[in-house]
UniProtKB/TrEMBL annotation:
Taxonomic lineage of the native organism: Bacteria, Pseudomonadati, Verrucomicrobiota, Verrucomicrobiia, Verrucomicrobiales
GO function term, MF aspect, one: oxidoreductase activity, acting on the CH-OH group of donors, NAD or NADP as acceptor
Keyword Hydrolase: no
PROSITE patterns with a match to the protein in the record: ADH_SHORT
SMART domains listed in its UniProt record: PKS_KR
InterPro entries cross-referenced by the UniProt entry: KR_dom, NAD(P)-bd_dom_sf, Sc_DH/Rdtase_CS, SDR_fam
Pfam families linked: adh_short
Domain annotation Ketoreductase: ranges: 5-183
Keywords of this entry: Oxidoreductase
Full protein name: SDR family oxidoreductase
C-alpha cells in the first residue's frame, strides 16, 4: 500500500476532472471520484479508486461518500472541487432556472465539499482544498453574467476560507483556467451563443487541453505543506 493519501475529485466523469484523476493516480494516490455519470468514472479504470454517483448539491450524499472512501483509504488529504456547469445566456432572456442550476453546482456544491472535509483537516493540521474557478472568475465576458457570478464567488469563498484556516496549516488554492477543450460549452442552450463562443475560440488559436490544467493542480498540491500557491491563472497564450 502506497503512503500517498486520499484525493477526492468532483466532476471526474469528463474533461478537466477526469484528467486531474489520471494525473493524481499516476502519482500513486488513492482516489474518490464523484459525479453523476458513474460509468464514465468507472471507464477510467484507475487503481485504488472509488467512484460514487452523486449530485454535489446533495450535502448528505457528499459527506457519506467521503466517509465511505476514508474507511477504505484513510483521511482525505486533498479535495479538488472541480464539478461545474456553464450555461451561457443574456440575462434579459435567459431562463432563471439556468442561473439556479449553475449556483447549485458551482457554488453550493463547492461549499458542500469544503464543509465535508475542512473540520477534520483543521484538526489534523494538514490538508489541501483546490477549487477550480475560471478566468471568468476574474473578468467579465459577454453572455457570461450568471456564470461569472458563480466563478467570482469561487474566488471570494476560496480566499476567505484560506485566511480563516491558514493558522491550522490547511491550504486553499484557486486554479482559474481560460478556454479548455471539454464538454463544458455543450450544455448552453442558445445555438447562437455557442457559435459565437466557438468563433472566439478559433480566433485565439483554439483552447488548451485538460492535461494542461491537471498538471498545474498536481504541481500546486505537491509543494511542501508550508507553501501555499494561492492562485494559478492559466489560459491559451493568445486569450486576452
Ligand atoms: P465538463 O462539462 O467536461 O465537466 C464538468 C464536470 O462536472 C463533469 O464531470 C460533470 O459530471 C460534473 N458535474 C456537473 N454537474 C454536476 C453535479 N450536479 N454533480 C456532480 N458533478 C457534476 O467541463 P470541464 O471539464 O471544462 O469543467 C470542469 C471545471 O472547469 C468546471 O468547474 C468549469 O467551470 C471549469 N472551467 C472550465 C473551462 C473550460 O473552458 N472548459 C474554463 C474555466 C473553468 P456529470 O455530468 O457526470 O455529473
Amino acid at each position: 500500500m502506497s503512503d500517498k493519501k486520499l484525493v477526492v475529485i468532483t466532476g471526474a466523469s469528463s474533461g478537466i476532472g477526469a484528467a486531474i484523476a489520471k494525473h493524481f493516480s499516476q502519482q500513486g494516490h488513492p482516489l474518490l471520484l464523484l459525479a453523476r455519470r458513474l460509468e464514465n468514472m468507472q471507464a477510467l479504470a484507475l487503481p485504488n479508486c472509488m467512484c460514487v454517483e452523486l449530485d454535489v448539491a446533495d450535502a448528505a450524499a457528499f459527506t457519506k461518500a467521503i466517509a465511505d472512501a476514508e474507511a477504505q483509504y484513510g483521511p482525505t488529504d486533498c479535495l479538488v472541487n472541480n464539478a461545474g456547469i456553464m450555461l451561457l445566456g443574456d440575462i434579459a432572456n435567459q431562463d432563471a432556472d439556468e442561473w439556479k442550476r449553475m449556483y447549485d453546482v458551482n457554488v453550493i456544491g463547492l461549499l458542500n465539499g469544503m464543509q465535508a472535509v475542512l473540520e477534520p483537516m483543521k484538526q489534523r493540521e494538514h490538508g489541501t482544498i483546490i477549487n477550480i474557478s475560471s478566468v471568468a472568475g476574474r473578468k467579465g465576458f459577454p453572455n457570461h453574467a450568471a456564470y461569472c457570478g458563480t466563478k467570482f464567488a469561487v474566488h471570494a469563498i476560496g480566499e476567505t476560507v484560506r485566511e480563516e484556516v491558514a493558522g491550522t496549516n490547511v491550504r486553499v488554492i484557486t486554479i482559474a483556467p481560460g478556454a479548455v477543450e471539454t464538454e463544458l460549452l455543450s450544455h448552453t442552450t442558445s445555438d447562437e451563443i455557442k457559435a459565437g463562443y466557438n468563433e472566439w475560440k478559433e480566433s485565439i488559436n483554439g483552447a488548451i487541453h485538460s492535461d494542461d490544467i491537471a498538471r498545474s493542480v498536481v504541481f500546486a498540491y505537491q509543494q511542501p505543506q508550508n507553501v501555499c500557491i494561492r492562485e494559478i491563472v492559466l489560459a491559451p497564450t493568445k486569450q486576452q
